Amino acid sequence: MKLVEVKPLGNFEILLVFEDGQRRIFHGKNLWKDRKRFLPLKDINYFNQVEIYECLHTIGWPGPDDLQISPEWLWRSSTPIVNETLQGKIA
Q1: What is the rounded CA–CA span in Å between residue 20 and residue 4?
Q2: Mean pLDDT, the chain, whole residue set
Q3: What pLDDT is attached to residue 32?
Q4: What is the phi-psi region of residue 57: left when phi exceeds 0, alpha when psi lies from -120 to 50, beta otherwise?
Q5: Which pTM was predicted?
Q6: Which of 28, 64, 70, 87 has the maximum number of C-beta atoms within 10 A of its C-beta?
């Protein structure tokens, strides 16, 4: 499973595009609730700096904290895009 694109959508949501073309929305608002190491992501400006770490096939955020999330976990924790009303949000 490989991510080919990520795009912050605001409100702690990320568009995920997988190599098979599947598009999903990751809702990250509670990411830090049970995972204290993700507390820096409560800052929406930092959260929106998400990027793909292609060599590891993960997403992550810049900085010394080494915050990364595997594509498999993202897949299980995200919602498929099925509602056409979201299309304007992700265009």
Answers
A1: 9
A2: 87
A3: 83
A4: left
A5: 0.84
A6: 28
Give me the DSSP letters along 8-66: EEETTEEEEEETTS-EEEEE-TTTTTS-GGGGGGGSHHHHTT-EEETTTTEEEESSTT-
Identify any residues that bridge with 27 across adjacent strands, giving them in sequence order: 13
Domain made up of 3-81: CATH architecture: 2-Layer Sandwich (3.30)
Where would I find the H helices in 1-91?
A: 44-47, 71-76, 87-90
The residue written with tokens 């990520």 in the block is 6
Can you tell me the mean pLDDT for 35-53? 92
Given a cut of 70, is residue 87 above it in pLDDT? no
Task: Tell me what the mean pLDDT of segment 28-39 comes to.
Answer: 85
